[in-house]
Amino acid sequence: MRPLLSRRCAPAAICAALALAGLHASSAADEPVIRVTARKFEYDTPEIILKKGVPVTIELTSLDRVHGFNLPDFKTRADAIPGMVTRVRIVPDKAGTFAFFCDVFCGDGHEEMAGKIVVKD
Questions:
Q1: Number of domain units in the chain
Q2: Partners of 100 in beta bridges
Q3: What is the gyration radius of the CA atoms in the chain, in angstroms?
Q4: Does residue 42 fall inside a structural domain?
Q5: E-strand spans in the chain?
Q6: Is 113 part of any domain?
Q7: Nearest to 121 by CA among 103, 87, 99, 94
Q8: Structural domain boundaries enclosing 20
Q9: Residue 101 domain-assigned?
Q10: Which residue from 54, 53, 101 is spatially nearest to 73, judged by alpha carbons?
Q11: Is residue 66, in this structure, part of any structural domain at all?
Q12: Mean pLDDT by 10 residues, the chain (121 residues)
């Protein structure tokens, strides 16, 4: 009996699944990478400053449990999972200040787990 997913097509299947989820398996070598670590009830980088039109990859991880990263103004949402790195690529197309927040309930104090992205012209 053959397995449903062979080893040869597994990487392509993973990349396809990530693309459908809005995530990217890797970023261009010249794009900035911003690392954000989540833990109850905070992000270690509560403010991120970006330049309009410049793509960036945000690398998310967690120290304690699954947390969310929701950036509604850019239609971006991902999970920060302990022991894993989740990469989210965004291209800020408008200037301003935009909130991101944890959307996975993590206990008392969860509602304070937020940050902002400031996009400058």
A1: 1
A2: 115
A3: 16
A4: yes
A5: 33-39, 42-43, 47-51, 56-62, 67-71, 76-80, 86-90, 96-101, 114-120
A6: yes
A7: 94
A8: 10-120
A9: yes
A10: 101
A11: yes
A12: 42 42 52 96 97 98 97 98 97 98 92 97 95
